[in-house]
Amino acid sequence: MHVGVMIFATDYSIRTDELAIALEERGFESLFVPEHTHIPASRISPWPGGPDLPKDYWHTHDPFVALAYAAAVTKNLKLGTGICLLAQREPIVTAKSVASLDMMSGGRFIFGIGGGWNVEEMEDHGVQYKTRFAQMREDVLAMKALWTEEEATFHGDFVNFDAAWAHPKPVQKPHPPVILGGETDYTLRRIVEYGDGWLPRARHGFDAKENMARLARVAEEGGRDPSELSVSVFGAPGDKATLDGYAEAGVTRALLTLPSEPRDQIMALLDKYAPLVA
Prior knowledge:
Layout: E1 2-7, H1 16-25, E2 30-33, H2 63-72, E3 78-85, H3 91-104, E4 109-114, H4 119-124, H5 132-148, E5 152-155, E6 160-164, E7 178-181, H6 185-194, E8 197-199, H7 208-221, E9 230-236, H8 240-249, E10 253-258, H9 263-277
Parallel strand pairs: 1-2, 1-10, 2-3, 3-4, 4-7, 7-8, 8-9, 9-10
Antiparallel strand pairs: 5-6
């Protein structure tokens, strides 16, 4: 099992390029960053993580810019979005960003996506909460066409374009892995239909053995080989016993949580976590 990290990369935390270098030096496999374009000040939508929304949610860098900085100073570190709020993005432009980052990093990008929870944030982007997953599905299918076809065409309810040329193409073939966040059976069925892996959150009581069996069952029901689907546990605890349990259950990677703190605090935490990489 691989061990990576996730962090809300912000304007007040460690620089992403400095963090990437430190991660690669210590043998970590990957760096994942979340995104929010903004947080509406009304704060009507409750945060699923608790009563008070941390300020890093409205201080995040654009994930593709942040990961490009990380890619430029590393050779092997994998780079992921965790998660990209895909329905809030224009899919043709996002397909270009993904392909460009994958090409310029030498095929190291992992595309973590999800539907999101903040209704007001979505509405500011013209996205409706009730249809966000249907829109995300079309976005993925349209982007796959742009990544893999010389003259791509897509016509749906949310995405429409006639034959188009779009380069560069991603280095990874047929395209970078698309992994979906969420914990419901609906999420698992979406993964089986158009995804390459699962990005569940550890904070929701992730039982590795039980959930690996659940994913396998849904995959087999949908005609997919479960071994084709990666599992990356988001926000995994820095605890050896828990990580050993993940590995035994067949989890692909554990993503340890780093706080949005300056360089010195993060370096000390990385040194503490480094023995877990082995």
